[in-house]
């Protein structure tokens, strides 16, 4: 199977690179600047799971090539429309779409553009960033991808993907409850990114403060209430479980959104917290902490502009 990874950034470059390292037929759809960088230096992965310097095949929008079997979207949500436009010439009638974006708002867009039957559910767990030279710096114990049919079925096509993804230096796992997995991750990342950006601190000082545990759990419960009102299949007590997970994380752990803020980059406020607030308004769920998180992010956006 031929795989096209949209971009060769911190997430797509890492997981696409690990598949390439295994010997999978992977191509990266990139901009001219990134293509030049990759040609000069290679795709460099510096990871707690092992360093790799790879020679990737790249593609620039407009170049002619046959449609791919699988397209992996790993871009930020605010680049999704642009990414869809760029990738459409390389998508055929039976091309599978595997999104690794955060949140859930992107699914309606992908279903509309590519057909619900062609879009898998997907997510990833990883802490990774690009340095000034374009190297991928990966620091977390987790470097996991989950994927699966929206229905939860073990179809022939996802079984083929499971085989293709097996035995590479990253954990790709076929899930039979990918919808629940995605909502659970959304809850976790919306809470984690919310508190770390609100307090401009890694998770350690936040959870250790006098009111830290109460604030983290209260934000998670607000988000959980919105998700349940929307009919999301999230587990009972998931908020408390995720607080336990945050308490077990390294005290220096930051959310990717916080790292983006520190670099002065765009953030996914509308895609993550903003989407939840739209649902909260629709279902009349009170969300004072979530509003504070979103307001803080929008002020950052204004100051950044």
Question: What are its keywords?
Answer:
305 residues, alpha/beta, five-stranded parallel beta sheet, five-stranded mixed beta sheet, globular
Mind explaining what this structure looks like?
It contains 12 helices and 10 strands. By secondary structure, it is of the alpha/beta class. The protein has a 5-stranded parallel β-sheet, with helices on both faces. Strands 3, 4, 8, 9 and 10 form a 5-stranded mixed β-sheet that branches. Helix 8 runs antiparallel to helix 9 and helix 11 (270-283) packs antiparallel against helix 12 (288-304). The protein is globular, with a radius of gyration of 19 Å.
Strand residues, percent: 15-25%
Q: From the alpha-carbon coordinates, what is the Rg to the nearest angstrom? A: 19 Å
- What is the 3D shape? globular
Q: Biggest sheet, open or closed, and with what strands and sense?
A: 5 strands, parallel
Q: What is the H/E order?
A: EHEHEEEEHEHEEHEHHHHHHH
Structural classification:
alpha/beta
Proportion of residues in helical segments = 40-55%
| Count of distinct strands | 10
Number of helices: 12
Distance between the termini: 42 Å
- Unreliable stretches covering 5 or more consecutive residues: none
> How do the strands line up in the largest sheet?
5-2-1-6-7
Q: Report the mean per-residue pLDDT as an integer.
A: 96
């Amino acid at each position: 199977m031929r795989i096209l990874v949209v971009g060769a950034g911190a997430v797509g470059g890492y997981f696409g690179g690990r598949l390439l390292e295994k010997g999978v037929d992977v191509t990266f759809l990139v901009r001219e600047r990134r293509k030049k960088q990759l040609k000069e230096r290679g795709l460099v992965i510096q990871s707690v799971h092992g360093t790799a310097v790879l020679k990737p095949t790249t593609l620039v929008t407009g170049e002619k090539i046959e449609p791919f079997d699988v397209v992996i979207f790993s871009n930020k949500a605010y680049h999704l429309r642009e990414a869809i436009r760029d990738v459409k010439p390389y998508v055929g009638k039976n091309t599978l779409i595997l999104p690794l974006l955060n949140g859930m708002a992107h699914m309606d867009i992908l279903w509309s553009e590519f057909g619900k039957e062609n879009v898998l559910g997907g997510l990833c767990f990883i802490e990774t960033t690009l340095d000034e030279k374009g190297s991928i710096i990966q620091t977390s114990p987790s470097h996991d991808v989950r994927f699966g049919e929206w229905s939860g079925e073990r179809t022939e096509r996802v079984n083929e993907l499971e085989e293709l993804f097996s035995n590479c230096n990253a954990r790709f796992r076929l899930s039979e409850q990918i919808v629940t997995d995605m909502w659970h991750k959304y809850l976790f990342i919306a809470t984690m990114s919310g508190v770390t950006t609100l307090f401009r601190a890694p998770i350690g000082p936040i959870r250790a403060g006098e009111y830290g545990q109460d604030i983290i759990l209260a934000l998670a419960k607000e988000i959980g209430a919105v998700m349940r009102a929307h009919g999301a299949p999230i587990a009972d007590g998931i908020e408390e479980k995720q607080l336990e997970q945050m308490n077990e994380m390294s005290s220096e752990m930051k959310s990717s959104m916080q790292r983006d803020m520190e670099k002065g980059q765009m953030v996914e406020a509308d895609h993550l917290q903003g989407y939840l607030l739209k649902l909260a308004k629709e279902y009349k769920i009170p969300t004072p902490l979530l509003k504070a998180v979103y307001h803080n992010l929008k002020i950052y956006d204004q100051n950044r502009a």
